[in-house]
Design brief:
By secondary structure, this protein is mainly alpha-helical. It has helices at about 5-15, 20-35, 40-55, 60-75, 85-95, 105-120, 125-140, 145-155, 165-175, 180-190, 205-215, 220-235, 240-255, 255-275, 275-295, 320-345, 345-365; strands at about 300-305, 320. The protein is about 70% helix and about 0% strand.
């Protein structure tokens, strides 16, 4: 197998949208490069695999490939440039946070390592501080977030800093997590009016996050507006695991059963087969709430198209919602307990409880 044939596989992958086929082509290129002992091409292929895997929700594949590249670069930095790796390191730390088996000590050590590498190469700490802020947010250590947030905002931008729209969305998200809705809404304005733009914003993130925050506040009209603006991009076109759960909660809250079923069925296989434990927990929890809402309206048997390998699937595809709800609830809580134990707090499970309460209260209101 020649280097040209390996490069052809990578060229084919580059022409595809993010997804399983793109990742499979990159993996094939890696295997072929390894079989020929072409370490330089293997490094190039793995760098691309990291990128494709992260944006295709194959985080475990990304972590393995990145670790290989980082070890090679540390051993021979002149031959294997660390330039791209410093950007990819941010994604990898974010991915590691979504696995409860990765300890807080390990996550913090990785973040410190990223900040050290940035400093040694003369770069701004801004991207590293953004990564640190994200880990605090996703591990429920919110009391420590404000100090890091202030340091992040003071640090100068450089080539490793995310675009202004991505950073602004992170600001919106932090305000929402800290229950500062007015500040979140104010910060979201330049994203919503198009002053700040990015390929992913605001449809799949800002609008989806605001949608659920508005539902929690009882602002049904505004929440529905945000749902209509973001549903197609977040769920139908991209099947974003990070936001499909939010839309499933919303459609449960709004008693939009047909759209809830569409979200449940179309995204479930992705969550079950490719989602990180964090993504799977969030989606399974939302699914349990949705199915529980159906059970409160009679619990008659319904047909659902479930992935063939899902343990709760039955050949007849006919289920009582209460039975399915119980299965998804148990699976979600197993993971939630692991995250709480890892994080040393109950922020994760508390969030699940609050989301369930809000979604079911809205469903009950709509049924009256």
């Amino acid at each position: 197998m020649s280097r040209d044939e390996i490069e052809s596989l990578l060229d084919q992958a580059a022409e595809l949208q993010h997804g399983p086929t793109q990742v499979a082509l990159a993996e094939q290129a890696v295997r072929l490069a390894d079989s020929t002992n072409d370490v330089d091409v293997a490094f190039e292929a793995r760098e691309l695999l990291v990128y494709y895997a992260v944006f295709s929700d194959f985080d475990e594949k990304a972590i393995v490939a990145f670790s290989w590249c980082l070890a090679r670069s540390d051993a021979e930095p002149e031959r294997f440039s660390p330039y791209k790796l410093l950007a990819e390191y941010q994604w990898i730390i974010g991915s590691a946070t979504t696995y409860p088996g990765v300890s807080l000590e390990r996550i913090d050590a990785m973040t410190d390592d990223l900040l050290r590498r940035l400093e040694e190469r003369g770069h701004s700490p801004r991207s590293g501080l953004a990564t640190q802020l994200s880990t605090l947010r996703f591990t429920g250590r919110l009391n420590a977030s404000q100090e890091v947030f202030d340091a992040w905002r003071r640090a100068p931008r450089d080539e490793y800093t995310e675009c202004v729209a991505c950073e602004q969305d992170a600001i919106v998200d932090l305000h929402l997590v800290l229950d500062r809705f007015d500040l979140a809404w104010q910060s979201a304005r330049p994203l919503l009016d198009g002053t700040m733009k990015c390929g992913s914003f605001p449809q799949t993130t800002t609008q989806s996050s605001l949608m659920w925050a508005m539902a929690c506040r009882g602002d049904e009209e505004s929440a529905r507006d945000m749902h209509q603006l973001s549903f197609q991009a977040a769920v139908v076109r991209r099947k974003s695991l990070d936001y499909a759960a939010t839309h499933l909660l919303f459609t449960t809250w709004a008693a939009e059963t047909r759209r809830a079923v569409k979200t449940f069925e179309s995204v479930l296989s992705w969550a079950a087969e490719r989602g990180t434990p964090w993504q799977r927990c969030e989606f399974y929890s939302a699914a349990a709430v949705f199915l529980e809402s159906l059970a409160t309206r009679g619990n008659r048997r319904r047909r659902f198209r479930l992935p063939p390998d899902l343990p709760c699937r039955r050949e007849h595809d006919s289920y009582k919602p209460a039975e399915l709800a119980d299965w998804f609830h148990q699976e979600a809580w197993k993971l939630a307990e692991q995250f709480d134990a890892r994080n040393g707090n109950t922020w994760f499970s508390d969030t699940m409880r609050r989301n369930r309460e809000v979604a079911l209260s809205g469903c009950s209101r709509a049924a009256k």
